[in-house]
Amino acid sequence: MGRLRALVAAAGRGSRAGLPYPKTLFPIQGKPILIRIVELLTCYDNCPTIVVSPEGEAPIRECLEKAGLAFHLVLQPKPQGMGDAVLRFQESPAFKSTDHGLLIWGDIPFLQPATIGAAVKAHFEHDNDFTFVTSVVDSAYTVVTRDISGGVIEVVETREHGIAVPQAGERDIGLFVFRNDVTLNALQEELPGKYGRITSEHGFLYIIGSLAKRGLRVEALPIATELDLVSMNTLKDVEAHL
């Protein structure tokens, strides 16, 4: 089956939410989002790797230590996109012992244990190279495209494709399980869509289409619950759950 290690992308600075600290440290019902995520991950990896910004390193370290949790921190020196953040995993002490990665965006406070469990189970039982969780929503800011048999073709970010008003569709939720070497090798290649048209940042979702085109086993699981879909870009996104 191979060793599974967890990675949390938590380099978001919180400025869009009007916070003077990383948004992953925002407390939801008295507990920081990051602590909620790390606690969920303990049954898969009791010492996950957290990608942080230079400004966020000290407060995130303090928060995790105060909670008594084990972790590895790696720096993303500049905000150069999620693909760049995931590549920072190579700097973690956990990297060399990793066969499969469990990646979670650091601004998702209500991921359900059953959703993570189902994704991990499907990944290994189906011998997938890349597995991710999705949901069909009224306003999809990322869009999963499938072929007539239901196989994944690609995932696109609407803002990078000039789509001003997102439409109904299937979107990812920020939860991924992948074969480590396959994914990180793809991130290092100069592939179409690597850099955003609007942001010029190194993205992440573009590799899904590339892996699918190569005939690798890519599976999108439309199993997300309403709570799984909650993510914090602004305070308004989570105010109903405070």
From TrEMBL:
It comes from the Bacteria. It catalyses: N-acetyl-alpha-D-glucosamine 1-phosphate + UTP + H(+) = UDP-N-acetyl-alpha-D-glucosamine + diphosphate; alpha-D-glucosamine 1-phosphate + acetyl-CoA = N-acetyl-alpha-D-glucosamine 1-phosphate + CoA + H(+). Pfam families: NTP_transf_3 (PF12804). Residues 6-134 form the MobA-like NTP transferase domain. Keywords: Acyltransferase, Magnesium, Nucleotidyltransferase, Transferase. In the C-terminal section; belongs to the transferase hexapeptide repeat family. Catalyzes the last two sequential reactions in the de novo biosynthetic pathway for UDP-N-acetylglucosamine (UDP-GlcNAc). The C-terminal domain catalyzes the transfer of acetyl group from acetyl coenzyme A to glucosamine-1-phosphate (GlcN-1-P) to produce N-acetylglucosamine-1-phosphate (GlcNAc-1-P), which is converted into UDP-GlcNAc by the transfer of uridine 5-monophosphate (from uridine 5-triphosphate), a reaction catalyzed by the N-terminal domain. This is MobA-like NTP transferase domain-containing protein. It comes from Candidatus Competibacter phosphatis.
